[in-house]
Amino acid sequence: MVFKPQTFHEKAPTVVTEFPTEAAVEAQVAAALAEAGGLDAADISITTKDGTATLMGRVLLDNQIKRAEEVARSVRGVTDVVNKLVSEQTD
Questions:
Q1: Degrees (nearest 5) of the Cα angle 88, 40, 79?
Q2: Does residue 35 surpass a pLDDT of 70?
Q3: pLDDT tens-digit profile of 38-69?
Q4: pTM of the model
Q5: In terms of C-beta density within 10 A (0-12 exposed, 13-18 middle, 19 or more buried), how is residue 35 classed?
Q6: Residue 80 zone, left/alpha/beta (φ > 0; ψ -120 to 50; rest)
Q7: Exposure of 25 in the CB half-sphere (CA atoms within 13 A)
Q8: Is 54 in a helix, a strand, or coil?
Q9: Which of the chain's ends, N or C, has fewer CB atoms near its CB within 10 Å?
Q10: Residue 1 · residue 18 · CB < 8 Å
């Protein structure tokens, strides 16, 4: 964490984090998946540890598995993705 210099006018100093927390990265990945086109992320859960995002759950179509991984990789703070998604699509 980085502290800003102390200010006057009776304002408390604010704390700025240099690295996002695991929960913040999970929230950012979830938001990115929800906003991504061509993807139904309703049944996807995300966990992160040391920059690795793990995607678990179900998607409707096979191509959505790769799409979800691409979206998760694009989020700042994600260095790797473990994709455990399965498709409900039957050929």
A1: 100
A2: yes
A3: 888 889 999 999 999 999 999 999 999 999 99
A4: 0.75
A5: exposed
A6: beta
A7: 26
A8: strand
A9: C
A10: yes
* Residue 33, token pair as written in the block: 């998946």
Residue 56 CA from chain centroid, whole number: 12
Q: Which listed CATH number (3.40.47.10, 3.30.300.130, 3.40.50.300, 2.60.40.4070) goes with 20-87?
A: 3.30.300.130
* Identity of the amino acid at 38: G
Structure tokens at 77: 């703070």
Starting at the earlier edge strand, list the strands of the sheet with 52-59. 44-49, 52-59, 80-87
Cα 91 to Cα 84: distance, rounded to the nearest angstrom: 20
